[in-house]
């Protein structure tokens, strides 16, 4: 069986939970002298792999590391390209109104923006569009490029990266989804969007593996 490689802080978290279960995230953070936000991704990984069990208003319990509850041996064989979905792409000169329509017809939480050469240049979320709508902007005339988050301030993932890395990025940056990209081998400024990795993709994978 292939065992997930835990870092030192994650191993320390397991020790604390074993000795004090049930224990809240606040108390775990206190024991490690860090903030709760710092532990968010570590706790997410430990619960998703089944090592810890989290119960609302109670705290964390140690579940153990076994072939039954540790599905990371299967996850490690999965790459982003195995579960990514099709991206929703729009051109940067499209109006905010048109992007709002596209988002709700596609039922996604974020849309990726491309330039005239079809390279990734931005991203917009539901929150961005809501701010533009209530902020008095003329959403029928203003291009989406005016309000999008631009490169290089976009969190991305490669199609050959591990699923755990994708999950960590989504959790750490508190986003709905991230674009799966591929760089041109001759020009790093040429960034093509190959897919979309979202919380839903990852949740479906865990449900599939747990069901099997």
Automatic annotation (TrEMBL):
> Which InterPro entries does this one have?
CBS_dom, CBS_dom_sf, CBS_domain-containing, HTH_11, UCP026546_HTH-CBS, WH-like_DNA-bd_sf, WH_DNA-bd_sf
Which Pfam families does the record match to this protein? CBS, HTH_11
Listed A to Z, the keywords are: CBS domain, Repeat
Keyword Nucleotidyltransferase, does the record have it? no
Fetch the SUPFAM superfamilies from UniProt: CBS-domain pair, Winged helix' DNA-binding domain
Q: Which Gene3D superfamilies match?
A: CBS-domain, Winged helix-like DNA-binding domain superfamily/Winged helix DNA-binding domain
Q: Which residues form the CBS domain?
A: 83-139, 148-212
Asked whether the UniProt record includes Repeat among its keywords, one would answer: yes
Q: What is this protein called?
A: Helix-turn-helix transcriptional regulator
Specify the species: Romboutsia sedimentorum
């Amino acid at each position: 069986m292939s065992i997930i490689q835990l870092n030192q802080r994650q191993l320390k978290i397991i020790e604390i939970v074993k000795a004090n279960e049930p224990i809240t995230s606040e108390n775990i953070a206190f024991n490690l002298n860090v903030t709760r936000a710092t532990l968010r991704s570590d706790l997410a990984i430990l619960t998703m792999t089944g090592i810890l069990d989290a119960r609302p208003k109670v705290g964390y319990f140690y579940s153990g590391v076994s072939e039954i509850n540790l599905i990371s041996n299967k996850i490690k064989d999965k790459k982003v390209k195995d579960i990514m979905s099709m991206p929703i792409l729009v051109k940067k000169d499209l109006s905010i109104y048109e992007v709002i329509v596209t988002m709700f017809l596609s039922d996604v939480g974020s849309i990726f923006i491309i330039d005239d050469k079809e390279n990734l240049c931005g991203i917009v979320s539901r929150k961005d569009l809501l701010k533009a709508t209530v902020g008095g902007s003329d959403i029928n005339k203003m291009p989406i490029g005016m309000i999008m988050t631009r490169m290089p301030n976009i969190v991305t993932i490669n199609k050959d990266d591990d699923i755990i890395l994708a999950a960590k990025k989504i959790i750490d940056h508190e986003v709905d989804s991230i674009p799966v990209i591929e760089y041109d081998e001759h020009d790093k400024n040429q960034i093509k969007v190959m897919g979309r990795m979202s919380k839903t993709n990852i949740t479906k994978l865990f449900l599939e593996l747990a069901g099997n």
